[in-house]
Amino acid sequence: MNENNARQIRDRVNEVYRQESRSIFATLIRLIGDFDLAEEAMHEAFAVAVKQWLRDGIPANPKAWLVSVGRFKAIDTIRRRTRFDASLAELAQHLDTSDNSVTEDEDVEDDRLRLIFTCCHPALSREAQVALTLREVCGLTTEEIASAFLIAPPTLAQRIVRAKAKIRDAHIPYQVPAIAELPDRLDTVLQTIYLVFNEGYAASSGTALTRTDLSEEAIRLGRLVVELLPDAEAIGLLALMLMQESRRTARTSATGDLILLEDQDRSLWNQAYIAEGRTLVRQALSSPQFGSYTIQAAIAAVHSEATSAEATDWAQIVALYDLLMRAEPSPVVDLNRAVAVAMRDGFLAGLQRIDAILANGDLADYHLAHAAKADLCRRLGRKSEARESYQRALILVKQEPERRFLEKRLQELN
C-alpha cells in the first residue's frame, strides 16, 4: 500500500473516532456493563483498526466492526482477569454468547440515550450526574469539565470515579426509564444536555470559540428526549439550542475572532433552524408547564425576528427576562436583563443595574459582567471606567477569541 492510501485510511480511522467513538462506547457499555472496561475495549478496537484496515481495507460498516472487535477485546481482558477473580468467568461466558448486533435506528432505544439516563440516575448527586455525562456521553476530558465547573481536575476525577463505583455497586440499570418514571428524571437530563450544548456553543476555554461536535451532539440528544417524552421544557430546550446554533456561522470571523450579536451578518443565520425553533417555541408556550428553557427560547426568537439590533423589540425582551427572573432567578439572568434594559431605556440605566449586581458581590469573578460594564462605559464615554473593567475582564477570561476581542476594545480606548 502506498503512503497516500495509508494516510487516507488513517484519516478515515480518525474521522470514525471523532464521529462515532461515543456511540461505540455507549453500545459497548450495553454489551459489557462496565464503564472502564468499555472505554479500554473501545480504544483497543481503534488501535486494531489502524493496523487491520491498512492491511485488509475499510469494512463496510466500520461502527459495527469496531463494536465487535471491542467486545472481543473485553472478553479477552475478562478471561485474563479470571485467573485472579473466578467470579468473572460467568461474565466472560455471557459476553461470548450474547448478541452484539448494532442498529443504526436512532429511536428512543438509542444507546447514548440509555447512557445519559444511567449517568443521570437519581442515586447519584447532581454534580456527579453532570460530570459523568459530560465525560462518558460526550467525551470531554477531565480537564475540560473541571474548567467548566471551576474546580481542580483531581477533584473532578474523583467525583467521576465515585459515580462509576456507585453505578456498579448499586446495580443501576443501563436502560431508558419507564414512562411513569421519566418526568422525575427529566430535569437533570435537560440540564446536562444544555451544559453540553453551552460547552459547544461557547467553549469554556481554549483557542476556539465553539466546538461544533458538542453542540450538534446536544441537539441530537435533545431531539431524542423530545421524541421519547414531548414535555414542554424538553421542547423548549430543543428550540433554544436550535435558535442559538442558528447564529454559529455569523459569530466568528474568517480568522476566528468573536463577532457580537449586534454586529453579525444576519443573512448568515441558519433560517431552517430558526423556523424549526420558532415552531417549537409556539408549541412549548401552548403548554401551562413551560419553564425557563422555553422563556429563553422565546427571547432568542424575538432576536431572530429583528433585522438589526436597533430594530429589536427590546421592550418584549425585557418583559421576557422579567418572566425568566420569576421562573429561575439568578445573577446571570439579571445581568442579561440589565443589558436589555440598556438597549430599551438607555446605557446609563443598564449600567446602574450592572453596578448593583457587582456591588452585591454577585458575578465578581464572571468576566462577562465586567465586559458588559466596560461596553456600557465605553458607549457613555467613560473611558477610565471602561478601561478598568476591560482589564478586570481580561484577568478572568479563559477563551482566546474573547481575550482578543477584549484586548482590541481596550486598545481602541487609547
Topology:
Blueprint: H1 3-32, H2 35-56, H3 62-81, H4 88-97, H5 111-119, H6 126-137, H7 142-149, H8 153-169, H9 182-201, H10 212-228, H11 232-245, H12 271-285, H13 292-305, H14 314-327, H15 331-345, H16 347-359, H17 367-379, H18 383-396, H19 400-412
Helix pairs in contact: 1-2, 1-3, 1-5, 2-3, 3-4, 5-6, 6-8, 6-9, 7-8, 9-10, 9-11, 10-11, 11-12, 11-13, 12-13, 13-14, 14-15, 15-16, 16-17, 17-18, 18-19
Provide a quick synopsis of the model.
With 414 residues, the chain is mostly helical. The chain has helices at 3-32, 35-56, 62-81, 88-97, 111-119, 126-137, 142-149, 153-169, 182-201, 212-228, 232-245, 271-285, 292-305, 314-327, 331-345, 347-359, 367-379, 383-396, 400-412. Helix content is 70%, strand content 0%.
Q: Would you mind describing this structure in some detail?
A:
Helices cover 70% and strands 0% of the residues. It contains 19 helices and no strands. The radius of gyration is 24 Å and the shape is globular.
User: Any idea what the shape is?
Assistant: globular
What fraction, in percent, of the residue positions are helical?
over 70%
How far apart, in Å, are the first and last alpha carbons?
60 Å
Could you name the ranges where pLDDT drops below 50 across 5 or more consecutive residues? 103-109
What profile does the largest beta sheet have? none
Strand content: under 5%
Order of helices and strands: HHHHHHHHHHHHHHHHHHH
Number of helices: 19
Q: Provide the structure class.
A: mainly alpha
